[in-house]
Amino acid sequence: MSRFWRTASSGRQGRRGRRGRGAGRHGRAVLATVVGVTVSVGLVGCASGGVTGPAQVRMDEELSGPIYLGLTDDPVQLRLAGSYEDAFAATGRPVEFRDVDSADRLDMLQAGEVNVVLGCVGELLDVLDPDKGDELRGLYAEAVEEGADPAQWRDITHTTMFSALPTDLQASDPGEAVGCTDDSLPQNTVAVYRKTALERSDRRALNNVAGGVDSSDLAEESEGRD
């Protein structure tokens, strides 16, 4: 399986820095909401305290074992798999691939059958909170007509999706690559994982892949497989 990823660097920062005529008042309104949600999520996380008892034992087992990466039959996920495997190898964690159905992947993640699954920010938002997805879709459509900034709306969609995750799950940074075809919302790739399964270095590995693989890399990989 081919691997390709670059350490996230100034390229990602540059994309965030370019603000077009952009989301305008709609983007600012959604951003204000997103900031409030993010602060609330952060405060809940800080107040959760330490883990003890059987939960601590299970967490220790997860952290000492391999990463179980759940993959659907989506070609983009299959192309990304090797990059995640390499990134985790750098942290000393072996990776085992497990087949998952797209509709069941989050349930399998919460059940501990896998540690990490992949998806797209807009697609996952529709799964987690369809009403919020529809609301954001309407705002995004208006912003696109005004010349929306893709990086800003990628981050808005990612943060809205993040806030809809169950409390035992977390998500990586949004990727540079676009992994789903529904363009009514930003569809940048993202990894969702069990909080108890990854060390800080493992989470950094996920973010390195997010910032180091873009859509052109995926296209080149696809051509190489033909």
Automatic annotation (TrEMBL):
Disordered: annotated span: 1-25, 206-226
Highest taxon listed in the record's lineage: Bacteria
Composition bias, Basic residues: 13-25
Biased composition (Acidic residues): 217-226
Protein name as catalogued: Uncharacterized protein
Lineage: Bacteria, Bacillati, Actinomycetota, Actinomycetes, Mycobacteriales
